[in-house]
Amino acid sequence: MTGRAMTRFRAAAGRIDAATPAHRDRTVDALRALAIAGVILGHWLVTALVVTSGRSGSTLSDQSPLAAMPWLTPVSWVFQTLAVFFLVGGYAAARSYAGDYRGWLARRLVRLSRPVAALAVFWAVLGTGLYLGGESTRTLHTIGTLVLDPLWFLGVFALLTALTPVAVMLVRRLGAWAAAIPVAVVAWVDAARFGLGGPSWIGWVNVLAGWLVPYLLGIAWARGAFRGWKAPASMLAGGIAATAALVLWAAYPASMVGVNGARISNLNPPTLAVVTFGIAQAGLALLVRPLLARWMRRPAGWAVVAMANLSAMTLFLWSQTAFLIVTMSGLLIGKLPGLHTAPASAIWIAERLAWLPVFAAVLAVLLLVFRRFERGQQLNLAARTGTPIP
Predict the structure, then answer these.
(1) What mean pLDDT value characterizes the chain?
(2) Which of 71, 47, 72, 51 is CA-nearest to residue 61?
């Protein structure tokens, strides 16, 4: 960054810092930004679109470095941050809901639907072009899966948002222990499908129950729970211990994301292991808030977080598209290492890390084009005045 650009950035950061209301909890925005960044980087690191050749021509297949290199499993512990996002989502919903359920819900769902509609139109046009251009069915299926994969998250988030009044009522009566109810549901479902030979479809109950756990913890946080360090520390320690026990003695996968070819996925649908892991993440997030608060007092750091929060859904939804644009464009040159090659060795990791700035640059361009669909005129006003949106 040049000296002039740095000066302009510092001036803009100062305006954003000055325009931020004093009562705003900046650590909530920081946690949301970190959660989104974790998911995006996780997708870029553990997804490999490998070029394979056959009688019908070249196709792209989705392969995971976690399958070829199991020692990379700890990467999934760092970048699978969905529980933190649902924690912050529950907090924000509880703080913003104050009656007028229909109007409140409509405003929140509109914020989710606008960026989804833009993504759908973009890929409907591009997908049709790829099909008419003769792209293989297998490649189109792989692309479609990667593009649509983030949408399950928004569907669950929308449903939990709609259930916020019920969730608030549970927390009002039971406090943070309300989260024990969906934990018990997840445990029962896992016991039924893994231990009692129940149907596999019952696991989809956990899609709602599993993510309701951090959502309820977020509501409890908004209502004044977790003021000291003891409860978050207990969540962290207990979550780690429970997850370790499930992996070591109950045959749950160690990876907190799905691995191609694995018999069980901790994430799709959520298992008890990913729920206990999420409780540990929530405890850690609450414990690091004092550190985040110090960082967020710095105008430069706060400016980055504030602007990221203005377009959080756009960043999340379009991150896979940025990855696919780079991957598909690279095919015009040839089979590029770290982009189209099989993730079979540590060399591939170094090659993939070199591509991350390229993915980020393309995502930045997509953000400039499509961020207006997330907040509309409100986003444009905030960008001009430096006032963060609640």
Answers:
(1) 89
(2) 51
